[in-house]
Specification:
Blueprint: H1 2-18, E1 33-42, E2 48-51, E3 54-66, E4 82-90, E5 93-102
Parallel strand pairs: 3-5
Antiparallel strand pairs: 1-2, 1-4, 2-3, 4-5
Length: 107
Amino acid sequence: MILKRVPLTKFIVFLLILLPADLGFSQTKGETISFSGTIESISADYKFIVVNNVNILISSSTKIVNERGYTLKAGDLKSELYVIIQGVQSSNGFLAMKIIVTKPPAV
C-alpha cells in the first residue's frame, strides 16, 4: 500500500513545484494596451505588422475585424490602412489581441 503512494506523492510534489513557476508559456500577461495608427509595413507571412514604428505580432488568436464588427483575415490587412490595436507587451514587441480596421479620425 505504501509503495503505491510514493509515485502519487512524487507527482503531487512535482505539480506543486511547477504551479508557481513562470514557464514563459503565457505571453498575454500584463495590462491591455490600446493604440491606433496607419499600417506602415506587413511581413510576407502576415505574422507581423508595423504601426507607429512598433512591431506588432499577429497570432492565430488575434481577432481582426472591420469597424462594423465583421471578421477579417490577416491577408486583408494592407499598408496605409488605419487600425486600432488592443493587445499586450511581449518579448518581440507587442502581441495584438484585437485589430480593428477603421477610417482615420477626421482632422
